[in-house]
Amino acid sequence: MAKRSPEKKGRSRGTPKTESNQPILPSGQENLVERPSPSINEAAPATEEESILKEFVIECGEMLDRLDQEFVALEKDSANASLLGSIFRTIHTIKGTCGFLGLPKLENIAHGTENVLSAMRDGKMLLTSDVVTILLTAIDTIKEILSHIQAEAKEPEQAYETVRQKLDALLAGNDSSPIMPTHSIPPRQGDVAPPTSPVGEGTGEKAADPSASKALSSAEMSLRVDVRLLDKLMNLVGELVLARNQLLQHARERDNTAETGTAQRMDLITTELQDAVMKTRMQPIRNIWEKFPRLVRDLTQDNGKQVDLVMEGAETELDKTLLEAIKDPLTHIVRNAIDHGIEPPEVRKSRGKGAQGRLFLKAYHEGGQINIEMSDDGGGIDLEKVKQKAVEKGLIRPDAVAQLSEREAINLIFLPGLSTAEKITHVSGRGVGMDVVKTNIEKIGGTIEMTNRLKEGTTLRIKIPLTLAIIPALMVTAGRQRFAMPQAGLLELIRVDEESGERIEILQGAEFYRLRGALLPILRLKNILRLNSRANEIKEPDQEQSETNMMVLETGGNSFGLVVDEISDSEEIVVKPLGRQLKGLSVFAGATIMGDGQVALILDVMGIAKQGGLLQEKEKHSDPEAKDDTEKAKGVERQTLLVFSLSSRDRYAIPLDLVTRLEEIDSTKIEQVLGRELMQYRGDLLPLIHLDKAIGLDLQGERPERLPVIVFSKNQKSVGLIVGQIVDIVEAERLLYPSPAGKVGVEGSLVIGGQITDLLDIDPIIERVEPGWLGEPVGVGEGQNEIQE
Fold first, then answer.
1. 152 CB contacts (<8 Å, ≥6 apart)?
2. pLDDT tens digits for 733-752?
3. What fold does the segment set 285-465 form as a domain?
4. What is the 8-class DSSP label of residue 305?
5. pLDDT at 664 exceeding the cut of 60
6. Mean pLDDT of 161-188
7. 20 to 30 A Cα–Cα from 23, which one of 180, 432, 441, 736?
8. From CA 114, how far away is CA 615, in angstroms rounded?
9. What is the dihedral of CA 701, 705, 709, 715, to 10 degrees?
């Protein structure tokens, strides 16, 4: 086809989107994502013809992405004439513009595709899965040609005749007479006039379509902007925010009314400008998700599986840079779910499931972050198989694999080189994938965690920030130095007032705080950052100041408390990357410049948790009543325990099978005989022991009228142990921490119901007060008989 001069036509129009093949990170964070090789989008066009060609490539890319989704939808609803008409008009427009720009190979494939679509639209061809597959192959070919044009500014040498022949063969296999079965597509009028102008110019076809006129009107009100310009604009706004912060600081120090008013006005304008610039960079996650229906369709056909893809929250927006960064990780997860997760129909039926699997994607905003959940109802992950593969690959020692908890076993999936695929395919089996996914997510400040239900499915949860450029942060002080804590990982602030009875407890050198009944591990920022000479020393609570400032933070599903010296106001900070000399410090995420001109380091929540070893500690303490695989692997005994207390500040437990009875006695019935306390009980005398005195506590205060008593019997002897309060009877694992020196009769400590509980060795305690308790049975009439139930 003869090439027409582009000078006779104006610039092509279309609904613009900010597109680029190169993700450009804001605020100097360019090192987070690899840059692809340059293309025609990288440099300014030398001629108007190249400018038009660039516009054409971008707009075709947008339309083809939409076509993938529309073809998959049409395959499910073949009678949808509106959808078929939309597909036809898109290909029709691309074909017409190819002729205008002199792209014969691209026009040839588009023309063949249009012929098939026209036959389907006129009711001369049935829509089948095989037809859709050939049409999608043609779309992929068009994408390949466009990619070459983008890189080289010309069509490739390849002729693509095979694709055109397949399209023509589809037409040749149908006679010319219309067929009108139940699912045929009725003909549509007014869509046959070929365009003679670039994309967006008015044609007879467009004029006849009211929806097309509306789209043109919307396009005329839009402007395509190079993403590099938006990056530069974001950097300038970041610098403006820094200047704003300094101006506000200066106005507060001078306390001048006029200056304060000007500073507040500047603050308002800067905030509005920042919000506006941020919105220009925000794009819906739909831009990624719209590629998944085609991906799922192709994979299920290759694997012989049936999958229903459900997507929720497609309009959730995030920064374009982050959108580009998560595109490949999300695509890999979807491929894994189809290839590894969802079973073939016959396997699903044998497990009592429906033949069709379900892949569910959900995105939503929460706490200044984007949350993405991807779950399937497939076979789940066989953790034993994962452990075996990890040992075979040399990723973990055989003696260590038995000690792994369920969460730690799942995390083996993220190790480089691990794959559980039975055979290598084009989808999986090479051991490269989930480790890269995790690395890419963490590079942009995100987290990823997986939950598994064997034979029921898996769920992946990803959390990423809305943007990397300007974030809200809480300013804190430790060791006379100022730091910024991003608010994305902040749950709440706590001031521990020991004078009111609150305290931080110490267990085997680690600190914990009881927060609403749950045990919260504690770290001190000064110790983590080694800001004092005695960084690793933990002082007893009574040696600390009466009030302690603590932030409750969350990372990777784990919560912990971080103690700081002071907590200041919340500020919006501009994130600046650390120099290469400091990039190895995992406790810092970057730096920022404060209003007074000083630099403050930005703390990294996950890095601090790892530095303090709390990711492992959380496994031990966060859910103490849950069945922990680590404890099972160690052969930890499960038994029923009686939990009781002596005061409001302590808890104790003893095995329930040692207890004969639980009683509540009237204190007036206690008698003193030769310095011993006894009571008449079931026709005999029952010696009584005050547990607080027996273990060296000797709690002061008046005794209540009713006293809880735990009765023990051994060798035809009985004794009653007076305690403060019976709390509960629970079943728990005896995962003990060694008893601290000086605690009489304490076998060790464990966590029950989120609280530290001392497990008592009751026999030595009784023996100290009642000598002979562990000896031979006494004779009948010697003062004690075994208490019968």
1. none
2. 655 555 554 566 778 777 77
3. Heat Shock Protein 90 (3.30.565)
4. -
5. yes
6. 61
7. 432
8. 57
9. 100
Would you tell me which CATH number, out of the four given (3.90.226.10, 1.20.120.160, 3.50.50.100, 3.40.50.970), belongs to the domain 6-220? 1.20.120.160
Lowest-confidence region among 488-502, 568-582, 619-633:
619-633
* Same-fold call for 471-621 versus 636-769: yes
CATH node for 636-769: 2.40.50.180
Bridge partners of 688? 720
Q: What is the CA radius of gyration of the chain?
A: 36
Cα dihedral 15→19→25→26 (10° resolution) = -20
Torsion of CA 109, 111, 114, 119, to 10 degrees: -110
Cα separation, 594 vs 609, whole angstroms: 25
Task: Please compute the mean of the pLDDT values over residues 680-688 and round it to a whole number.
Answer: 86
State the CATH class of domain 471-621.
mainly beta
Is 531 buried (19+), middle (13-18) or exposed (0-12) by CB count in 10 A?
Answer: middle
Q: Residue 168 is which amino acid?
A: D
**pLDDT tens for residues 497-526?**
776 667 788 776 788 888 877 778 899 999
**What would the pLDDT profile of 310-355 be if each residue is shown by its tens digit?**
999 988 888 888 888 888 889 989 998 998 889 999 999 999 999 9
The SS3 call for residue 758 is strand
| Token pair 């009769």: residue | 745
Structural class in CATH, domain 227-283: mainly alpha
> Is the distance from CB of 573 to CB of 473 less than 8 angstroms?
yes
Amino acid identity of residue 198, one-letter, is P
Token pair of 222 as six digits? 């839009």
Cα separations in angstroms, 355 against 48, 179, 221, 359, 730? 55, 33, 48, 13, 42
In tens, the pLDDT along 29-84 reads 333 333 344 444 444 444 667 777 877 887 787 788 788 888 888 888 888 888 88
How would you list the strands of the sheet with 706-714, edge to edge? Answer: 661-666, 706-714, 717-722, 684-690, 676-681, 671-673
The answer to whether 19 and 61 are in contact (CB under 8 A) is yes
The contacts of residue 656 (CB under 8 Å, 6+ apart) are 639, 640, 641, 642, 729
| Extents of the domains making up the chain | 6-220, 227-283, 285-465, 471-621, 636-769
The model's pLDDT over 605-627, given as tens digits with 9 standing for 90+, comes to: 888 888 887 764 333 333 333 33
Residue-by-residue DSSP string for 556-569: TTEEEEEEESEEEE
Beta strands in 272-316 (DSSP E): 282-284, 307-312
Give the confidence band of 362 by pLDDT, cuts at 50, 70, 90: very high
Contact between residue 525 and residue 483 where contact means Cβ atoms under 8 Å apart = yes
| Nearest Cα to Cα of residue 341 among 404, 282, 427, 442 | 427
